[in-house]
Design brief:
eight-stranded mixed sheet
Length: 388
């Protein structure tokens, strides 16, 4: 039991902190011994590109999204726009149809985002594709900063940065902003070491010729599309200077809904990408994938419960004062999370409690997502989380 306890505690630490520390050390060593930089296109050399937006009932955002899209800097003769509004029952198709420079694809049937993306890609002949969500807004040079990396033939996809806009008086979703800042740093180091482990749908790009249709029941279609490209031996570059701004979830309940869906998609992806669990073929990518994704999406949340229970047992058995210290630290942390929940319910703003609360919510979502996936409760068609 003692061995199990310490191995579990190590894996918990490694999952959330240790990997980041090790990754930073490896990156610093690479900077010393392999300082080479990837080639990049100049502005006038950029390849042809199509920006794809899949929008479902996004009339509240579309006018601003289109204005933001048309203001993006890129060689005008090499940039196209496709908006897919499949299944929308609001004014989304009508709004997009007002702009002749944008190709509108609309079908009344709602089959999910990935089905809409498949339809769009069939219409695209450009070298590159950039995907972005309808409720996010890109910086002016986002496309240039993404697509310049394709001068390196080893690059198969580019992941942009997701930035969460958090208000000063935000509730526990302030933890979402902190989480994404930490994630962004890990992605930057992952990319510098070898490859980012997947891309998020808010903003990412791929080479058109490398696109492989993923199953229509994919929950994390953006992650699967990018990782299928990585499976082919190409790398996914992280570009923080291409970013998508998105408001935070309206409240922790909405954020939990989104996280549970991501967790269900995470275990689906782990099963579908099982080849990446064996490092003989992909030594560095497998190390990154297991460390950054698989542990979080599978065993670590359960190990947290196991460690807590075993720690109580060891304290009751009076094995060592060290176990009392560890148990006390855990109790303080979980009490802080609970107080964060109480503060949120009372609309009191104590930001120091938001991070442990968000951390616990995130790990609860993994367990709930696993159950949802294995009991068939996660549909590819889902109700969007309400945002501020």
């Amino acid at each position: 039991m003692i061995i199990i306890f310490w191995i579990s505690l190590f894996l918990i630490f490694y999952t959330f902190f240790g990997y980041g520390i090790l990754l930073l050390i490896l990156v610093k060593l690479k900077r010393i011994f392999y300082p080479a930089q990837r080639k990049q296109y100049a502005f006038e050399e950029l390849p042809t590109c199509t920006l794809v937006v899949a929008a479902y009932n996004e009339e509240d955002f579309l006018t601003d999204k289109i204005a933001n899209t048309l203001a993006l800097r890129y060689p005008a003769d090499r940039l196209s726009f496709v908006f897919v509004t499949d299944g929308s029952t609001d004014a989304s198709p009508e709004i997009v149809s007002r702009y002749p420079q944008i190709k509108l694809l609309h079908s009344p049937a709602r089959k999910g985002k990935i089905a809409a993306v498949h339809r769009a890609i069939e219409e695209i002949t450009t070298d590159l594709i950039v995907f972005t969500d309808a409720n996010t807004f890109l910086n002016e040079d986002a496309l240039v900063n993404l697509c310049r990396h394709y001068a390196d033939e080893k690059v198969g996809a580019i992941a942009g940065e997701k930035r969460v806009m958090v208000e000063e008086n935000a509730d526990a979703t302030a933890g979402e902003g902190f989480y994404w800042k930490y994630e962004s740093k890990l992605k930057a180091w992952d990319s510098e070491l070898y490859s980012v482990v997947g891309a998020a749908g808010e903003l990412f790009s791929i080479r058109r010729r490398l696109y492989e249709p993923v199953p229509v029941n994919s929950v994390l279609d953006d992650f699967m599309i990018s990782m299928r490209i990585a499976e082919k031996g190409f790398v996914i570059v992280y570009e923080p200077d291409a970013y998508a701004l998105e408001s935070s979830s309206a409240n922790i309940t909405e954020e939990l809904k989104r996280k549970i869906r991501i967790a269900a998609g995470g275990i689906q992806s782990v099963i579908w990408l099982k080849s990446l669990l064996f490092p003989l073929k992909y030594p560095v990518l497998s190390f990154q994938y297991i460390s950054h994704r698989v542990l979080r999406w599978t065993i670590t949340p359960f190990l947290m419960i196991l460690v807590f229970v075993l720690n109580i047992v060891f304290v009751c058995l009076e094995l060592s004062n060290l176990y009392l210290v560890l148990l006390t630290a855990q109790i303080v942390f979980y009490l802080s999370a609970y107080l964060g929940k109480v503060m949120e319910s009372k609309k009191l703003r104590v930001k120091v409690l938001f991070i442990p609360y968000y951390f616990c919510v995130m790990n609860y979502a993994v367990m709930a997502g696993l159950l949802r996936f294995f009991f068939g409760g996660q549909s590819v068609i889902w109700e969007k989380a309400i945002r501020k």
